[in-house]
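go over this:
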Amino acid sequence: MTVALETRGLCKNFGALAVARSIDFRLETGARHALIGPNGAGKTTLVNLITGRIAPSSGQVFIAGDDVTRLAEAQRVKRGLARTFQITTLFKGLSVLENVTMAVGERENTTANMWRAAGSRRAIVEEAYGLLERLGIAADAMRRVAELPYGRQRLAEIAMALALRPRVLLLDEPAAGVPSTESAVILDVVGALPDDIAVLIIEHDMELVFRFARRITVLVEGAILTEGTPAEIAADSRVREVYLGKSHGADHG
């Protein structure tokens, strides 16, 4: 398997406080991986280090084998790293299709010249509509984002991220604030994405994590406690002690 994303010895200190402690992490191409841990474990810090939102104190980040540690956030997006729900901002007054069309145009560097070539614009709109069809929200294409239920707004954000044609898709709490019926749809859609996209979700809802992930990494106090299959994680007494609660071993073992 090729490695889509890797961190080596990643550390981040804020003064005397170590929030990331020598994190070695690998995400294989096509992975369906979850990052879990108690509040304050450093999950968001790790994602911010991976995306380039904050710089590490030491260590390296690689995308598809290339060292991107010194690259800015936007440059990492161009290398194939897409993150939803925190940096992706939907334009609530525009339609769903307009939002996704803008994201495709951004990837193709045609956003500033959308007027110039009708044929080019048609191809961009068709690609955007195709993404909406793949995610099951084509019926909402012409609706303003502000009119959509929250779960469908989340799907629109995933469509915008996919418009960037990422190698790696980071989903930061995709189920937060979404009714359980809709969150299941979101995870089903994400799980069915093409095998060339590696997916990492950061999620508190353990039912979704165990349903979605093929591998799970547990972060505690800025360091990786363990990594394994859902069955291995559910059976790990250390994980149950720090995070899952004693009952989960029976539920998912």
Summary: The CA atoms of residues 149 and 178 lie 9 Å apart.
